[in-house]
Automatic annotation (TrEMBL):
One of its GO terms (cellular component) is cytoplasm. It comes from Kwoniella dejecticola CBS 10117. The record marks C188 as: Transition state stabilizer. HAMAP family: Salvage_MtnA. SUPFAM superfamilies: NagB/RpiA/CoA transferase-like. The keyword Cytoplasm applies. GO terms for molecular function: S-methyl-5-thioribose-1-phosphate isomerase activity. The gene is MRI1. Its EC number is 5.3.1.23. This is Methylthioribose-1-phosphate isomerase. Pathway: Amino-acid biosynthesis; L-methionine biosynthesis via salvage pathway; L-methionine from S-methyl-5-thio-alpha-D-ribose 1-phosphate: step 1/6. Keywords: Amino-acid biosynthesis, Cytoplasm, Isomerase, Methionine biosynthesis, Nucleus. GO terms for biological process: L-methionine salvage from methylthioadenosine. It catalyses: 5-(methylsulfanyl)-alpha-D-ribose 1-phosphate = 5-(methylsulfanyl)-D-ribulose 1-phosphate.
Length: 396
């Protein structure tokens, strides 16, 4: 499971990847529920399989779920069943699949952006339904081919833009700190497992490392799903990047005792005024960073920017099932087997008593006034001194 690491001053070992496509075009994903203990590849051939994998978080990370949704649509469009449909039937089928796939997870805008690209093409494509049945078939073949190309583009364009963001973010932070070796903090998982390669926030950390400008990358465990302790730890150890895990509750202590040069996070949706939805725990990291005068950087591709929403209050925050917070999956060191254990008294998160409730939002919103800058592949938008908003339209 390797993607070629980009060349840099410091050579990197091969990166992990969450999606692979074999020579026959079969798409497979690594089951992230089992990482880091077991590497199991699952074939994905249909939108239903992609929907299930995204919803159950076998694959996660804003860009990666958009890629998988698009690739599953591409695969399904190669079937005989689709090829026998009229152009109008194919269009309707694709639009239905876009709605269905988009409903798998609501907060990450990359997924809806990818589906919107396909919808826009379908809606503007000139139909030839009035032609004879044989030319209608060839017209639908053209349509299918074009939509498949859009799906492939969604997946492929991610890697290059991540490398650009990595470079831009590393340059900005190194200049801001003025130091030769930086200590940085990240939350959640934003590397090659969450994207098509190199990563967003982890891309900046990787670029610092490649330039020999990284002292230590601290990463938060990111409960309840443990994207940090399970996935970021796997990526950083695979790349042999100097790193140190902290529990989510230790951020304040870390900021008091270490000279941290920046907090670098990814995003699931950045709206017009710069407010940013990202993994739960990001907001508290931003509040603490401001208290300690530490620059707070958001790194996300243009496809994560949603100019249709004015402020973060409009972002739909996904609620995850309570069991994801009351149960922990891990390796039983006595049996050597993977197991799931409950860490709460029985009934918490499952019963209907007033004392059995669990609050489990998957994301929170960090107001722009706590963010120092937003980095996309188009550039860096800084918040001006004293301003409450960040003009992200300049980097779209
Ligand atoms: C490049 S990934 C950016 C975000 O998608 C990431 O920080 C995040 O919040 C992922 O959440 P997840 O719930 O694991 O899909």
């Amino acid at each position: 499971m390797v993607a070629q690491a980009p060349s840099g001053k410091k050579p990197l070992p091969d990166m992990m990847t969450s999606i692979r496509i074999d020579k026959s075009g079969q798409v497979e994903i690594v089951d992230q529920l089992l990482l880091p203990h077991s590497v199991k590849w699952i074939p994905i051939s249909t939108p239903e399989e992609a929907f299930d994998a995204i919803k159950s978080m076998k694959i996660r990370g804003a860009p990666a779920i958009a890629s998988l949704a698009a690739l599953s649509l591409k695969s399904s469009l190669s079937t005989e069943e689709i090829r026998s449909k009229s152009e109008e039937e194919v269009k309707k089928w694709i639009l239905d699949q876009c709605d269905y796939l988009q409903s798998s997870r609501p907060t990450a805008v990359n997924l809806s952006e990818a589906m919107n690209r396909i919808r826009t093409y379908i809606k503007t494509h000139t139909s030839s339904s009035s032609s004879s049945s044989s030319s209608a078939t060839s017209a639908s073949a053209d349509l299918v081919q074009k939509v498949q190309q859009i799906c492939q583009d969604v997946h492929e364009e991610d890697l290059e833009r991540n490398m650009t963001m990595g470079r831009l973010g590393a340059e900005w932070l190194a200049k801001k700190s003025g130091k030769s070796k930086l200590k940085v903090v990240t939350v959640c998982n934003t590397g090659s497992l969450a994207t098509s390669g190199y990563g967003t926030a982890i891309g900046v950390i990787t670029a610092l490392f490649e330039n020999d400008q990284l002292d230590t990358a601290y990463y938060a465990q990111t409960t309840p799903y443990h994207q940090g302790s399970r996935l970021t730890s796997l990526e950083l150890t695979t790349l042999e990047i100097p790193a140190c895990m902290i529990c989510d509750t230790m951020l304040g202590s870390l900021f008091q005792h270490e000279d941290i040069d920046g907090v670098i996070v990814g995003a699931d949706r950045v709206v017009k005024n710069g407010d940013t939805a990202n993994k739960i725990g990001t907001y508290q990291a931003a509040v603490l960073a401001q208290r300690h005068n530490i620059p707070f950087m958001v790194v996300a591709p243009v496809t994560t920017i949603d100019l249709s929403l004015k402020t973060g209050a409009e972002i739909h925050i996904e609620q995850r099932p309570p069991v994801e917070a009351t149960q922990v999956r891990g390796l039983n060191i006595e049996t050597g087997k993977l197991s799931v254990v409950r860490i709460t008294p029985e009934g918490v998160g499952e019963g209907d008593k007033p004392w059995q409730r669990v609050y489990n939002p998957s994301f929170d919103v960090t107001p722009a006034e706590l963010i120092s800058c937003v980095v996309t592949e188009k550039g860096v938008a800084e918040r001006k001194e004293g301003a409450k908003d960040i003009d992200v339209s300049s980097i779209c």
